[in-house]
Amino acid sequence: MDSRLLRYFVAVAEELNFARAAARLNISPPPLSRAIRQLETELGVTLFERTTHTVSLTGAGTVLLAEARIALDALQAAGRRAQRAAAPQPKLVLAVKADGDAGLLEAILARYASEPASVPVAVRLCGWDEQPRLLRQGEADAALVHEPFDRTGLDTETLAAEPRVVALAATHPLAARDRLTLADLGLRPGELYRFIDEVRRQSGDLAQLLALVGLGRLTPVLPASVAARYPRPGVVYRPVTDAPPAVLVIAWPQQSRSTATAALVRAAGSVAEAARERDGT
Predict the structure, then answer these.
(1) Which of UniProt's keywords are assigned here (predicted)?
(2) Would you say residue 281 has pLDDT above 80?
(3) How many other C-beta atoms lie within 10 A of the C-beta of residue 29?
(4) How far, CA to CA in Å, does 40 sit from each of 33, 49, 93, 184?
(5) What phi and psi, each to the nearest 5 degrees, are found at residue 143?
């Protein structure tokens, strides 16, 4: 199947408007319409329901959209990885959110450097939840990421499962308590991840988030390692006893055959196991 036709199809499926999709693709609407008809003919299915005023996906179109996005990401990723492999000095790109490594990153890199298959590592610092996209698009070879996330096309190995704490301004009424529950924070079971996402949208990084906590504007729920690593005047941390653990994994593309990436995964698993034994967990 022609990747150009898939790219055209995705544009129309996302815009649900041929004129907007054509502008996005920098082509005129007539050749775009012909391309979509060609794709429908090749597949023997109708991908769009068209009326004078609307365009909508059929059931077949909905299925193809999900699969086409994966296929186009895989093609893009293959090209990027091939370019990196051909570089005079190949390197491995590890994506991680700053302060989102449960304190394991330095030890993982040190252990990895001792692996015979190791290559230089470029640590790519990214925003909240960007790691899966970077992996699928070939911009990273491996990533440290907290669950939950979209695992499509990725393999993972669990590194840590930490208790959760809530960060509070020292003047917050709940700061006088030794431990708290989700109900104390106004949360019902099943609402925690939505709450975490809402908090993240209000801050760019951990330093900004904790500054907002000190001002009494946020009460984020965080992995317990944050409390140990980032004490801050005016901010207190309290255990949230019934919150599900914060699970950190190392993720990599399912289709990866890189011995360097496999060595990094081994190093990360070894460091995580040693940390669990040290902590008695």
Answers:
(1) DNA-binding, Transcription, Transcription regulation
(2) no
(3) 15
(4) 11, 12, 39, 55
(5) -155, 150
Which option is the CATH number for 164-239: 3.20.20.70, 3.20.20.105, 2.30.110.10, 3.40.190.10? 3.40.190.10
pLDDT band at 248 (very low <50, low <70, confident <90, very high): very high
- In sequence order, the β-bridge partners of residue 154 are 253
Q: What angle do CA 156, 160, 165 make, to 5 degrees?
A: 130
pTM, two decimals, is 0.75
Residues of the chain with CATH 1.10.10.10: 3-83
Q: For 3-83, CATH number?
A: 1.10.10.10
CA gap 55, 159 in Å, rounded: 45
Q: Encoding tokens for residue 63?
A: 């299925």
Query: What are the angstrom distances between the C-alpha of 102 and each of 64, 113, 144, 197, 230?
Result: 38, 20, 9, 19, 12
Where does 87-161+246-279 sit in CATH, by number?
Answer: 3.40.190.10
Counts for the chain of helices (H) and strands (E), in that order = 10, 10
- Is a pLDDT exceeding 80 seen at residue 102? yes
Cβ neighbors of 230 (< 8 A, separation 6 or more) are 99, 206, 210
